[in-house]
């Protein structure tokens, strides 16, 4: 390590791992934060950036590893502890109190008080005005936060972090809601902080931004650090290569089989929104046996809601569905499963698994009636089916009696898939089947989808990953704002056409774009 | 460097698993502890007569606790069981003494078997009311069963204007004799109520382990949304557990009035608290998804033996309450410690593997 200015490491993470029940968020990470420099952190969604930041900010404690701050090993008991040592954080999700004023928010938990412990509002507002002036945003300190635009709220969050007089300032996607002009102001503030020797940790998805203001870059992929470099030595391509890796997009090859007869049809599916309007807006589509139909759409496009309607989870949904040409009149989930529908939900923890039950119990939960004579569960038959699924899906588990929460995310996802398959479905609905699982498990999941379609299952899968939908689907449906806005054969689909279709339903509402963006 | 940090979690994990095993067996250890302490401290504690007497006491709470266990596993609570005990006792007493007046000059009297069945049906019906309130009208279980607690107790008092139905011997010419068999009868040297407990407990344990309904009870408590998406009929499962709890309470109502040969409307007050305590002591998690019938029975025995033993030792009833409360709190503290330890052991193993 050279001793030129801007290279002194103020805080070091050594061999840090963080495990949540079921997922390894970060593993064996080594990361140094340098003084008077912008330390950039990039990676895809779920790569572990936010986790790493939360560890530095004392929000989360590492499962293993050491934190060295100013040469001493430390362990932060809380974020307040980290703040008291001079570590501030601008959170991605805004941590503001909408019902309080800007000044009250900036001085929350360290209120300025007079001799009688009464809050000195005048002084707070005067000091807050100073910070806000730096940001040139025209925000008055006595305004209520809930009355501000999202971008302005983000500036308040930044002002709050700056006011801490921190030695390390972490910014988690600080520009996600800012206008171009506001970004320029933020960059001026950052340059100012840098000059004062503050170490800045900067997370963003916008690569051009990173290259402009970053001094050092660290790339994360699937919880591992895959590259660390000085910014002046790297270009966009290098960053992308480290982020994605060469093995990341391992889509199984198409089987080359011809899809069969129509197995599933939905007609005019509608679901009213609580706030008015339609979450699913007259969607009709059909699916053939052995076909993979990808449904692409941004967040909030209504993909999950469509699946919920098909599974009978919403009593107020309307429209008809057919399996093998026969209308499904049953309105409840239980009987729709019996008719041959199965859903792999998007949110594994909340909807996919009963985390305190064993792997085996989870696998057979939806198909118990298969193993029952009269009312007795035949243990042998159940164990056999479980063993078969574990083998077929390559679920890595020592003993199926283990609690399912002890598995990694990818293996948990396989359990959810196995549970659906054991019901003997004709149509499989998969909602973001590759979310939050590691590369190897992703490849396994894709291979399984291919195999199932070869075996004649109709698969509907929803995703917001363009590469995935292009690589896996036989046909691609695009949804936007509840409507079906495009339907492409694989041969004629282009990324540009799909992206264009995914913006069709929105109309001129720039806010939606911000919401859809992660 | 890396060597040291890799060793430390490994050793703490293995010592952790020994501690875990001890913690998992805590209710058994507690049961053995109370047995040993009282057999030393209280004379006659281990005599056959005393053991049978205690078992009869424990049985009453064990019935309620079994029903409560299923309810708690689904993530609910049933506060109405004590009142159902009282009301069912009154129903049985009323039928033995008065029959049903058809208001056309005839009064129908039932034999004892029919009376028992009607009483059980009343208990199940109140459980069904609880279930309907919770599943159809979305009333929180605590509030729904608090409501039926008062309603059932009020009805019990109304049945006799607050008086006791005495002397339930019945009349041979009406065919209403034999009500005392449940409480006083013996089969192969053991009280009938113990045999009933054995049958119901085995049935409940079988249900929990080997039937789809049992599996569904755990699934609903572990993750209701996931259970629903997996096709589990959540509402039916919940209906069942409250009806089963009502059924268990009705059995207790029958046994108590049969033992006393009288029905008193205040019978069963605060029984629900003992039932909850036994379930929790036996390892049932109040947040749902965890619990066993076997554990609950052991829990009921720990509580029952503790209070009977303390009486035999001549400990004042005020101190008994203090001790019972402490035992419950310690049980839950140990339970939580076990959870934390367990999740830490798994997480450390995963961190090493990852």
Could you explain the architecture of this structure?
The complex is a heterodimer of chains A (518) and B (354). Chain A is α/β, with parallel strands linked by helices. Helix content of chain A is 33%, strand content 26%. Chain A has 3 domains: 9-244, 3-Layer(aba) Sandwich (Rossmann fold), CATH 3.40.50; 262-340 and 425-516, 3-Layer(aba) Sandwich (Rossmann fold); 354-424, no CATH class. Chain A has helices at residues 49-56, 79-84, 102-106, 121-135, 150-163, 180-195, 207-213, 236-244, 303-311, 333-338, 348-352, 359-364, 379-392, 409-422, 439-454, 466-472, 495-502, 510-516, and strands at 9-20, 23-34, 38-43, 64-69, 72-74, 87-90, 168-172, 199-203, 216-221, 224-230, 262-272, 278-288, 292-296, 318-323, 326-327, 341-344, 372-373, 376-377, 427-431, 458-463, 475-480, 483-489. Chain A has a 6-stranded mixed sheet with strand order 6-7-8-3-9-10, with helices on both faces. A 6-stranded mixed sheet of chain A has the order 16-19-20-13-21-22, sandwiched between helices. A 4-stranded antiparallel sheet of chain A has the order 2-1-4-5, with helices on one face. The two termini of chain A are 36 Å apart. Chain B has one domain (23-316): ABC transporter involved in vitamin B12 uptake, BtuC (Orthogonal Bundle), CATH 1.10.3470. Chain B has 14 helices and 4 strands. In chain B, a hairpin with a 2-residue loop joins strand 3 and strand 4 (190-191). Chain B is globular. The A-B interface holds A 15, 17, 19, 21, 24, 27, 63-66, 223, 311, 313, 332-334, 337-338, 343, 345, 350-357, 361, 364-366, 368-369, 372, 375-377, 379, 403, 405-406, 408, 419, 423 and B 2, 5, 9, 210-213, 215-216, 218-219, 222-223, 225-233, 289-290, 343, 346-352, 354.
Terminus-to-terminus distance of chain A: 36 Å
Main sheet: strands, sense, barrel of chain A: 6 strands, mixed
Give the number of helices of chain A: 18
| Mean pLDDT score of chain A | 83
Low-confidence stretches of chain B: 1-13
| CATH fold label of the largest domain in chain A | Rossmann fold
Greatest contact pair? Answer: A-B, 45 and 33 residues
Which descriptor suits the 3D outline of chain A?
globular
CATH hierarchy, class of the largest domain in chain A: Alpha Beta
The CATH C-level name of chain B is: Mainly Alpha
